[in-house]
Recover the amino acids of this structure.
């Protein structure tokens, strides 16, 4: 059975895309067939996975159909691209900025339940292929938008990414409150909050610990993941060059091993929290 997850926060720059893609990568390495749906017109996860494909294969990732074109033609399968064994991508592109306009024209305000029809359209298309995957991960913009609502409507679990700064904590609170409102508004949605994922702004700094303590008081200590993502410079290289491992390039060293070890542990905890043992 497919498990669909969204990494979210209403504050940008907290590491949603990085953590979404890294978890997807580790799920694939563990043998789970995984799909990343890039529901952000900025296409950050698409770019990261394109660079990863290029790093591993030495050629540019071929993308024949953008997700926007596939959705317009009701042929979402035609947009799927394989990044590596068990890891697939529904790629975003700058044309995905037109998705809200497409929905407004397709489902007019005079139609019954037009708002629900708009946010459920993507799930209707995704249902044609979702049974082919063990996990589907959504990457969305850090804003209240049709993109976020679309992903929430499709999700089974939500992971709130919390960078250890006050604005991120404020964004996490706002996102938590919106999840409750969304859940109460649409009676057929059925997602759970898998947890709050702490991402350290800096390592061993008092503010990091203070924000984490505040989050435990606000959300409950059991809600926070046991695995904490520490500040790691290697992740910046991944954003620029693609995800690497010790067997892939001559540039790898213990930093790659450390990054993958941490994300492997996080992925194991996510598997446990989403009952996919």
């Amino acid at each position: 059975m497919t498990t669909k997850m969204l990494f979210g926060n209403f504050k940008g720059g907290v590491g949603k895309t990085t953590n979404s893609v890294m978890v997807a990568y580790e799920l694939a390495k563990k043998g789970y067939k995984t799909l990343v749906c890039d529901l952000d017109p900025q296409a950050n996860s698409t770019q990261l996975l394109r660079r990863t494909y290029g790093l591993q294969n030495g050629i540019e990732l071929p993308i024949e159909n953008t997700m926007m074109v596939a959705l317009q033609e009701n042929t979402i399968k035609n947009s799927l691209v394989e990044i590596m064994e068990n890891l697939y991508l529904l790629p975003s592109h700058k044309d995905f900025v037109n998705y809200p306009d497409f929905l407004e024209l397709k489902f007019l305000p005079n139609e019954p339940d037009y708002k629900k029809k708009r946010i459920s359209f993507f799930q209707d298309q995704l249902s044609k292929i979702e049974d082919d995957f063990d996990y589907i991960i959504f990457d969305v913009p850090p804003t209240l938008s049709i993109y976020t609502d679309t992903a929430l409507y499709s999700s089974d679990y939500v992971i709130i990414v919390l960078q250890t700064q006050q604005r991120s904590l404020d964004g996490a609170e706002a996102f938590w409150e919106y999840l409750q409102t969304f859940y109460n508004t649409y009676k057929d949605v059925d997602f759970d909050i898998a947890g709050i994922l702490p991402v350290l702004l800096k390592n061993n700094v008092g503010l990091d610990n203070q924000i984490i303590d505040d989050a435990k008081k606000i959300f409950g200590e059991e809600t926070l993941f046991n695995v904490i993502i520490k500040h790691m410079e290697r992740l910046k290289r991944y954003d620029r060059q693609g995800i690497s491992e010790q067997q892939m390039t001559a540039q790898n060293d213990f930093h790659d091993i450390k990054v993958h070890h941490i994300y492997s542990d996080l992925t194991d905890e996510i598997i446990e929290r989403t009952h996919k043992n």
